[in-house]
From TrEMBL, chains A, B:
GO molecular function term, any single one: DNA-binding transcription factor activity
Thylakoid is among the record's keywords: no
DNA-binding region: 37-56
Keyword line: DNA-binding, Repressor, Transcription, Transcription regulation
Name of the protein described by the UniProt record: TetR/AcrR family transcriptional regulator
Name of a matching Pfam family: TetR_N
Lipid biosynthesis among keywords: no
Amino acid sequence: MTNQRKPRGPYRKSAERREQILQAAYEAIDEHGERASLQDIADRVGVTQPALTYYFPTRDDLLLAVLERRDVVGKAFAVAAEEERPMIDSMVASTRHTTDHPGLAKLYVTLSAAATDPESPAHRYFAERYSGLAAEVTEYIQEQQRTGEVRADEPAEHLARTLLAVLDGLQIQWMHDPTVDIAAVAETFTRMLVPPAGSGQQTGSGQAAEPAG
Amino acid sequence: MTNQRKPRGPYRKSAERREQILQAAYEAIDEHGERASLQDIADRVGVTQPALTYYFPTRDDLLLAVLERRDVVGKAFAVAAEEERPMIDSMVASTRHTTDHPGLAKLYVTLSAAATDPESPAHRYFAERYSGLAAEVTEYIQEQQRTGEVRADEPAEHLARTLLAVLDGLQIQWMHDPTVDIAAVAETFTRMLVPPAGSGQQTGSGQAAEPAG
């Protein structure tokens, strides 16, 4: 277990500094979008710009770390929102996280588009992000199919990829027209995931209560 | 009617030349993606590069015209594919049009991302494209809801926006990982649009035949 204890001394200090820089970049982009300058980020932490590059050698390294954090924060936000209607609540929370943080959403869309070029530094990051997310959501959907919350008449992976596509696509629509109520559209989509009536699949807790045991 | 006759003389020649350039740009980008140079496009038509700018003042003007054509060609392709299962056939054809023309798909994703910036020259083009498409697909879905092909338990506009989001989102997933079978995922999605059994909505031609009259 000794390997897992928190780093101490200069090593700890270095991890803390990296975290400060990442947090500052996250906030700067949240406020100003991609236009946020490295100088602004360095100023927020009180370091020089060359010090930044010690932790994040290129601007892309820093931007991808910010996107990684966005994923983590967004997921935590979605999970925290799950109450009586887990699928709906978390989908709606995801869209809300998008619309509440337009600077971060814009960064995501821009880098994701650039990353489709195999020579882009972000290419591998996004390829892994998508395959990881697809696997994770597929597993979640399989679980929901077993409990009867989600229709089992379609392959879980297809439903998972559709769900991810809806989130990405609605994000784009919203950025082109912020008057679109993408939370409401996402709600419609989650209802399309429910087992069709008469499919003999409705055994889930979201449906009529089954006698215990 | 005289106003609608085809232009003649120098005016006609100018329209033809514009069309040649647009077609050459479409093909060059289809082959080489965004890396296609203006010089290459000019060479294909046999004009000088300055002559290009007479018809398309900026590179963006030309690229947006190519995207507009991609929409037209893609839609024609989707409509032509409609046979017994109109929704499924056209959705699958749309994804196929994407995967058959990666250079054009990449251009679309990149410009669409850049256009989320209100100061981008493509901003208005995309805003209008999305609102126009949303209106068009909504109308189509309303029709399908009336004939019972599409579920009427959700607002047509939500279903339309979901459909557009799925197409955009799957396109992105495919560009990050070309092994994903997005045509199959799109098929799953179209089945989610079907009226749930027992909704009392199944009166469409896709279902049991109704007595004529």
